[in-house]
């Protein structure tokens, strides 16, 4: 495995790529850094409540704490909001009638604008074109996101590690690594995941969906990457080599 090779090479090079953000001490292995961070965990409060000043370590706990101070509550689902305007916007989900129906797939929409945008996907209308590669898009926001691939622009930055992202969705997924939030839960065993894709892969293990089959011994696997690893047993391939020995 490639990670095993990286760990092995650090023995020869004395590299310590994992640095503590609090005291700058460096480590050769990520697991060693994680053990070290426990020393700082007792005082490394990350989130400070703007209402009462309480310091909270985990983002998920911080969000729950804010609910104490949020006076506007939805009568339908008990969701709470700090501002009344945000509550009013949320209420449309419950109260607005979806009177506009798509003639192709029967999906319904609250307003005509939502239906109009949706119909473009069925009709194949892509009026927004990339000036670099001529790829076309249904909506201007999709074009804007695509253009960043060519320009290298990454406007969304992580407040904790300053890593930058092309899309706000990628940033939100990344932030869960810092907060520990795992919003996707398996109905079968209760295991939680940061990303929906990881949950989808996990569910296949319960359903025994093994779509990838070995051409040599017909053994089957849930994921393609597991099949690739298995094939090396038959081919003798060892793609990772140490430069030192």
From TrEMBL:
SMART domains named among the record's database cross-references: ZnF_C2H2
Record keyword DNA-binding present: yes
An annotated GO BP: epigenetic regulation of gene expression
InterPro entries reported in the protein's UniProt record: Zinc_finger, Znf_C2H2_sf, Znf_C2H2_type
A Pfam family of this chain: zf-C2H2
PROSITE patterns according to UniProt: ZINC_FINGER_C2H2_1, ZINC_FINGER_C2H2_2
SUPFAM superfamilies hit by this protein: beta-beta-alpha zinc fingers
GO annotation, cellular component aspect: chromatin; nucleus
A Gene Ontology molecular function term of the record: zinc ion binding
Domain of life: Eukaryota
Record localization: Nucleus
Main location as per UniProt: nucleus
Record domain C2H2-type: where: 18-42, 47-70, 72-99, 100-127, 128-155, 156-183, 184-211, 212-239
The protein's name in its UniProt record: C2H2-type domain-containing protein
Organism of derivation: Clastoptera arizonana (Arizona spittle bug)
